[in-house]
Amino acid sequence: MKIVRYLTDPGEPPRWGRWVEPNLAERIRGDLFGEWSLAGELEPIAKLLAPVQPTAILGIGLNYRRHAEETGGKVPEWPVLFLKNPASVQNPGDPIVIPRALPAEEVDYECELAVVLGRNARNAPAERALDFVLGYTAANDVSARDWQIRRSGRQWCRAKSFDTFCPLGPCLVTPDEIPDPGNLRLGTRVNGETVQDWTTSDLIFDVPQLIEFLSADTTLLAGTVILTGTPHGVGMARQPPLWLKPGDAVTVWVDGVGELTNPVV
Ligand code: ZN
What we know:
twelve-stranded mixed sheet
């Protein structure tokens, strides 16, 4: 099932529903992170929102073999974890805003498979890790490379936490439609030109291994979003580098999930 979060009217609170058509949903009653059911009634979607408001966003760096190579890094021995501010989430279609108060000139895209946990996880073994997954979506882990590399003290959180730097969507796909998250194509287009196109079969640490690692002695709250890493082809590794600029349109896509497009302002 494809689940969307949306407004039926600008003044109404957000709702979840089963995605029926681009502008039509079957309403979900209840709590997506508890008990819920399909209400049977169809309603128009006035505006699509990011499918979840995360309780936490855990990002994984250097998790594709070819991307680790292009950055000149070694294949990591353990997953490389960073945190991204939950308030950095942006809706499908809404803009990625280049920071101004803290100017950033090297803003980059990263297409990623995002995993949403449906219930709290702690010490989840890899064999049962997918039981905790509510669904999958596409993410753009937007990153200001100047703040990530030269002005960071080797911490990535500042560079990846600016408002609008985490577009999510367009929908949440339940695991029955994605039985193997380790075999999905994903990619990025900037102004229609393909800049990333790869497969999650190149992941160094797959989704079950990541959940086991991240939940070890650590409570991951329901609603946690795990960004599983980006494949090669990021703007900073291109010659010359390709930075996002006002007027651009960025689309990230994941097979089975769909396309997530955001303008840059
Ligand atoms: Zn990333």
